[in-house]
Design brief:
heterodimer; A: alpha/beta; Rossmann fold; seven-stranded mixed sheet; two-stranded antiparallel sheet; 9 strands; globular; B: mainly alpha; 2 strands; about 0% strand
Chain lengths: ~350, ~300
Amino acid sequence: MKFRFNMAASIRFLVRRMVRDYSRNINCSVSCQIVRSSCPLNLSACRCFSDNAENKTTHFGFETVPEGEKTERVYKVFESVAQKYDLMNDAMSLGVHRLWKDMLLHVMNPQPGMRLLDVAGGTGDISFRFLDYVRSQEERVARRVAQANQTPSWQEISTSYAAPGQEEVEPRRSRAIVCDINKEMLKVGQQKADRMGLTSGLSWVVGNAEELPFDDDQFDVYTVAFGIRNVTHIDLALQEAFRVLKPGGRFICLEFSKVANPLLSQLYNAYSFQVIPVLGEVIAGDWKSYQYLVESIRKFPDQETFKGMIEDAGFFSVRYHNLTGGVVAIHSGFKLFRLLPPQRGDVPRPQSQPLP
Amino acid sequence: MRASQWHQCLCHPGNAYTIWPPEAGHCPTPGGTQGPLHQLVCVRQQHSHVDSSDSQYDRLYPGHIPTNPIQKVLLAVGSGVAALQNPYRHDMVAVLGETTGHQALTALRDRMKGDPEGCTVLTERPRIRLSTLDLSKMASLPDKSFGREYLRFLEENRVTPDSRADVKFVDNEELAYVMQRYREVHDLLHTLLGMPTNLLGEVAVKWFEAVQTGLPMCFLGAVLGPLRLSSSRLGPLVTSLGPWAVRNGRQARCVLSIFYERRWEQSLENLRQELNIEPPPLTVMATIQKAPSQS
C-alpha cells in the first residue's frame, strides 16, 4: 500500500475548514431568519441577510432549487417512499443491490469489536449485514478456540488450575449505529430489525450528515450507502465523516456513479428514464420521487471527481472499485491522523506558495 | 404555459363551482365588470403554489406528468397487472384508463362539442367536489328530485365525490378534463341508473359506461367484473340488468354532455326521460335483492 503524504491536501483542508466554519456561522443565523416561502414579498424585509442562503441554488434532480429547499424536498421524497423502499430497490435493480451491499461488506471486512456508523442508513441494510458478518467472524473464532481447547497442553491445564476463579475477558462488542435524517426510514428499519430478531448492538439515531450528533474520533468505520448524493453539501458531509472517525478509521461510500462504456451507458439511461419512474408509479404510486432518484444519479460527480472531494476532506489512500460496469462505485479512504486546529497567529497559506 | 390554480369563479356567485383551468374571458357575463377582480384572484392564487418555474410537471394542467409512448405502454401494462392483482388499487385503474383511452377520449370530446350543453360544459369546465356542492340546499330539495336522490345515494353508500384520483398521464388538457369529468360523473350515473356501489351495481354501471364512452378500461372492467360475481347475482346480470345497461348505453344521450350542476332541482324521472334512460328493471339493494317491481 503506497503511503501518500500530501502536504498540499492537508493545507487545503485547513483553509477550507476555516472558510467553512466562518460561513457556517453566517448561514446558521441566516437560515433562522429567512422565511422559507416562495412569495417574493417577504424577502425584501431581510434582503440584507439574504445574499448568502437565498441566492445560492443547487440541483434537485434536473430542477434548480434554492439550497434551503433541497433538504426539505429530499425529506419529503424519502418520507413518501419509506414503506415501499426495499420492495422498490429489489424491483428496480432486480435484486442486484443486495450483491452491491454484500460487496461493500467484503471490502470493509469488519472485525469483531469494531464500531460502525451507517449514515443515511435508513432501513438498515448495511448495519444488518455488518452485524451478521461480525457475528459469523466471532463464531468462527469461538469455534477455533473450542477446537484448540479440546486437546489442551499440560501448560494450559496448569494455568487453568492456578487461576480457578478468573473469568474470561469479555471481548469488546461490535456496535452499529444507524443514523438518518428521515424518521420514516428509521421506523421502517426498526420494524425490519424486530422482524429479524436483531436487537443487541444496534442503535437508531436521527441526524443530519452535514452535522452529525456525535463527538470526534468515535468510530472505526463510517459508511454511507446510496445516501450521499441526496446531501445538499457533500463536502460538509465528508468533513463530518472525517471528524467522527478515529485515527486509522475508514470511510466507505457506496453510490451510483458514471458508466464508462457508451453502449452500457445508453442501455442504462434508457432503463433509468423509461422504466424506473413507471415502476415507481405502479408499485409505490409515486412517479415523481423515482424521477428525482434517476435525475439525482446523473447530477452526482463521477468517480474521479468524488475521489478528489474525499481527498480534500483529508482522507488518505482514497481509491474506488467499480461495480456492474460503473453503475455503482465503492469509494474508500482512511483517516490517518487527527488534523490540528489552526493555531493563533497562523496565516492560512494559499496552495501555490511553497512552505517556508 | 404556467400551471394555474383552482379558484372560485366570481362570474357566477350563485352556483360557485371551481373552474379548471381558468382562462381569460372564459365566462361571458352580462355585466362584464368583474374583469380586473377576476385577474387579481387568478394572480393571487397562482403565486401561492408555484414551486419552480422550470419544473417538467404541471405544464398542461396541475398534476400533469409528461410521458413518451414507451412509458405509456409500460404504464398501461404495469397498471393493468397491478389492478388485476389488487382491484382495490383505484389509482392503478385510473392510470390504466388514462394511458389507454386517448382515442375514446377524443371521440367523447367531439361528441360533447356536437351537443350545445356539452359545449357549455367544455367551456365552463365545472367540477363536482364536496366544497362546491351546497349540501344543505340539496338536502332541502323535494324527494325524487335529482339533487336529493344524489345526496341520498352518497349517504346510503357512504361515498364522497372527493375520492376521485386526479388525471396525470393525458397529454392534452382538454382531454384531461374530459377524463376528469368522466370520473366525477360516475357517481351521478349510479343515481341515474339506480345502482348501488356493490359489485353487481358497479358491473352494471361499467357495462353502461363501456357502451357510452368506449373507454378500453371500461370494457376491461365490464369483462372481468362478472368473473368475480357469485352465481346468484350472475343470473340477473345476464338476463335483465346487463341487456338493459347495454341498451340504455346505446340509446342514451352522451352523459358527459349534461351540466348536472344546474339540474339539481329537476325531477329524476324527468331527467331520465330527457336522457332517454329507462328506469332499472330490478331494484338492486346493497345487501339483498328484491323481486322486480312493476311500475
